[in-house]
Amino acid sequence: MKVIVANNNDVAGKKAFELIKEEMDNGAKVLGLATGSTPVSMYKYMVNSDVDFSGMTSVNLDEYVGCAPDDEQSYRHFMQVNLFDKKPFAKTFVPDGLAKDPEEETKRYNKVIADNPIDLQVLGLGRNGHIGFNEPGSPFDVETRKVPLTESTIEANARFFDNEEDVPKFAYSMGIGSILKSKKIILMAFGTEKADAVKGMIEGPVTNECPASVLQQKDDVTVIVDTDAASKL
Ligand code: GLP
Questions:
Q1: Domain named Glucosamine/galactosamine-6-phosphate isomerase: which ranges (predicted)?
Q2: pLDDT for 9-21, tens place per residue?
Q3: Under 8 Å between Cβ of 133 and 123
């Protein structure tokens, strides 16, 4: 695990963008992408660059169950606004929050991942150490599934909604097993509220109580944190 401490999240986003560019120069065709506030600076660098993404495929980590693609809170909407509307990709995949049959949807998404093996996966980090929506206690060997969100995640994500009650209680999430299949991983985390999770991920035991700690076992993981998120290392 390579750890880069950046002065702030703008510098971190630029670094992440440069790593993406480097992988694309080396032939990467499929990017695994993430939502949340963390990757926003990286998306700004992607959007403002002259890099052509029109031959690229993206596979997103997760989506809220019950959220329509055009719902402002949906992760599909987030991706359109922050990246795809400005930098078109050849193909973009996000789980379908409105899928009628969760089992069929998770099967479909696992086939998407199998058909489009991820060259570089971008991850954020939950305050409780989650990656995607793989909350503490998640097994390390599962693929995409429908998962309940913990109270702590509902509370953390309430900032994007009018009321905490509006935060969906379930999501479709790539499993940790699917995430670990990607060739390379970049994980970003910013702010003091992530400092405990960052410490657990890098210095703690590998345990599913801190799902991100599993990344210690994978080659080719780059962690980019700001000084606040690195403050407990
Ligand atoms: C959310 C998402 C994750 C994200 C994390 C951190 O719940 N499912 O993919 O990485 O929480 O979010 P943020 O970047 O807004 O802190």
A1: 22-222
A2: 999 999 999 999 9
A3: no
**Ligand 1: which atom is nearest the Cα of residue 62?**
8
The residue with tokens 């694309």 is 24
Cα 12 from Cα 40, distance rounded (Å)? 11
Residue 159 CA to ligand 1 centre (angstroms): 12
Question: How far is residue 202's CA from residue 78's CA, in Å, rounded to a whole number?
Answer: 29
What is the CATH T-level fold of the domain 2-226, as seen in this structure? Rossmann fold (3.40.50)
pLDDT band at 44 (very low <50, low <70, confident <90, very high): very high
> Alpha-carbon dihedral of residues 125, 130, 132, 138, nearest 10 degrees?
160
Q: Which residues contact 52 (CB under 8 A, 6 or more apart)?
A: none
- Note if 62 is an active site residue: yes
Tell me which residue of 222, 175, 183, 181 sits closest to 201, measured CA to CA: 222
Q: Where are the domains of the chain?
A: 2-226
Neighbour order of strands in the sheet with 221-226: 2-6, 221-226, 184-189, 120-123, 30-33, 57-60, 91-93
Q: Cα separation of 25 and 16, whole Å?
A: 14
ipTM: 0.96
Pocket, ligand 1, Cβ cutoff 6 A? 34-38, 61-62, 124-126, 132-133, 153, 157
Give ∠ CA 2-186-28 in degrees, rounded to 5: 115
